[in-house]
Amino acid sequence: MLTGWETLIEAVIKVVIVFVLLLNVTIVVIWMERKVVADMHNRVGPDRAGPYGILQTVADGVKLIFKENVTPRKVERGLYLAAPVAAVVPALLIFLVIPVGRPFTIGDRVIDLSGADLNVGLLYILAFSSLAVYAVVLAGWSSGSKYPLLGAVRASAQMISYEAAMGLSLVPVILFAGTTSISGIVEAQTGSIFGFLGVWNVVLIPSFLIFFIAGVAETNRPPFDLVEAESEIVGGYHTEYSGFRFALFFLAEYINMFNISAIAVTVFFGGWAGPTFGTPASISWVFPIIWFFAKTFLFVFVFIWIRASLPRMRYDQLMSLGWKRLIPVSLAWIVMATLAVGVRRFGLPWA
Q1: What is the DSSP string of 172-223?
Q2: pLDDT value at position 195?
């Protein structure tokens, strides 16, 4: 049995590891986006700071940290300062419940490779993802300018619309897995059909497609990045932010992109599940970590591929896709999935 202090120390260590991991992953993701988009556009991309330009992101981050923070005169100071923090904290907390590998044993202690193994992990993710809209609204309203306010209204409408579709897309997964625990959903996908592929939840194709489309819109990524792109609102809800405060919004966007990729992998593609090639038990825990990050970065590449390939949508097309297409399809798919689960558990009523 762990004492209270040991449990607290273990939790603090896990939180610190997750924080450091996400910061380093963000550096890699931003560098990866610059290089991949440059290659797709037949450009060079960053190639001066560090090997292959890998330190360019670090240089940009240092520049933003030391750059002057300009505060407009008409801001609501408390809320204006709280908005960037409200953007980045939920992004950091979401990753805490995502297992990056198979639990392993040291002595008589089982080590879970996640910050916290909650039995309501999927609901936890949806709850904290919904908090991101508060940062957007607070940033736009507290800036004391009509342009950030207009950007915040548009961004909040977009996020609320696609958040509904995202939540509905996960209901069939919960029905088939029989749990809202993230580790439980991963365990439900660790079958042996074709070795490791047969029981992944990606067979629920409508759920996966709706989740991924909604995830791209939730993270404000192209082709749904209307809030920051339309000329009449200058730069969106964070127009009046500069320096380190703007860096927090920038950091939150890329962490959320990685989070959506990690959640998609965990919920639909087996998470850390994959072959270990008969390696000894002492090192077999390494392969699940490799599988998890390989799958996740593959999804990050898809995010970047979409940015380099698709034109930006109009705002009316964006809202129409969410409310008239994704949400009705999600509801119809939930009904079909419920019927399928009922037949699987209780059989046909006339049989």
Answers
A1: HHHHHHT---HHHHHHTT---TTTTTTT-GGGSHHHHHHHHHHHHHHTT-TT
A2: 41
